[in-house]
C-alpha cells in the first residue's frame, strides 16, 4: 500500500474562464490532481458565484497512483451544463481520498499569452 499525500478538501477562490482568444490556444483553466493512494479518487466540484446560487453537480475521477487534468472549459455538469465564461467564480474541490490540487489558468485574450498556476488552498480535516 502506498502512502497517500494531500488533503480531501481544497479551495480555489479565484477562477475565471475568459471567452477571448487571440491566438491558436484557447483560454482555459485546469485543476491538476495527483492521487498517490491505492484507491481511485472520486472528485466533486462545487462552484460559487457572486450573483447566483452555487452549483454542486460537477465531478471527475483520478485513478489510484495517477494524475488527472480537469479542463474546466470542457467539463460538464450532470445536467450537461458547462461552466459559464466571463464570470468570476470559486471552486471547492472534494475527494474521497487525499489528493494534491494545483490550479492553472492560460489567458490568451491578448496575443501575448499569460499562464498562472498555484497550489490550491488545502482545508484541514
CATH class descriptor name: Mainly Beta
Low-confidence stretches: none
Please compute the radius of gyration using only Cα atoms: 15 Å
The CATH superfamily is identified as: TM1070-like
The CA-CA distance between the termini, in Å, is 22 Å
According to CATH, the fold-level topology is Hypothetical Protein Tm1070, Chain: A
How is the main sheet built?
8 strands, antiparallel
**What is the molecular shape?**
globular
What is the number of helices? 0
Sheet-strand content, in percent, reads over 45%
Report the order of strands and helices. EEEEEEEE
Overall mean pLDDT stands at 92
Q: Could you say what the CATH architecture is?
A: Sandwich
Q: How many structurally independent domains?
A: 1
Class by SSE composition = mainly beta
Topology:
Blueprint: E1 7-15, E2 28-35, E3 41-49, E4 55-62, E5 66-71, E6 89-107, E7 114-119, E8 121-122
Antiparallel strand pairs: 1-6, 1-8, 2-5, 2-6, 3-4, 3-6, 6-7
Amino acid at each position: 500500500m502506498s502512502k497517500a499525500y494531500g488533503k480531501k478538501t481544497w479551495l480555489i477562490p479565484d477562477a475565471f474562464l475568459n471567452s477571448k482568444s487571440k491566438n491558436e490556444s484557447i483560454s482555459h483553466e485546469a485543476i491538476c490532481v495527483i492521487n498517490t493512494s491505492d484507491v481511485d479518487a472520486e472528485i466533486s466540484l462545487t462552484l460559487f458565484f457572486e450573483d447566483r446560487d452555487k452549483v454542486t453537480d460537477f465531478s471527475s475521477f483520478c485513478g489510484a497512483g495517477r494524475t488527472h487534468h480537469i479542463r474546466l472549459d470542457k467539463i460538464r455538469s450532470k445536467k450537461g451544463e458547462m461552466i459559464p465564461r466571463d464570470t468570476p467564480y470559486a471552486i471547492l474541490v472534494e475527494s474521497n481520498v487525499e489528493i494534491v490540487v494545483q490550479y492553472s489558468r492560460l489567458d490568451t485574450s491578448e496575443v501575448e499569452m499569460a499562464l498562472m498556476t498555484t497550489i490550491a488552498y488545502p482545508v484541514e480535516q
